[in-house]
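Let us practice reading a record.
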Amino acid sequence: MSKKSKRQVRKVTPQTLEVAAITNINAPKQPSFNPDYSYVIKDLRRVGVLVGSFVIILIALTFFLR
């Protein structure tokens, strides 16, 4: 069996809160991630139209082939 390890608990003091607040303010801002997925939507729409047309063709063929 493995040893059980105890979790260390950090005490939060006012000084550590001030340091954390200062480091968060001075942190460089990350550029926002704003991807453009318009080409994906176009491709999905095209695939949907193709699937719909193939289903309609298959249904029509079932009536003619019976």
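A brief commentary: The helical segments are 14-26, 38-65.
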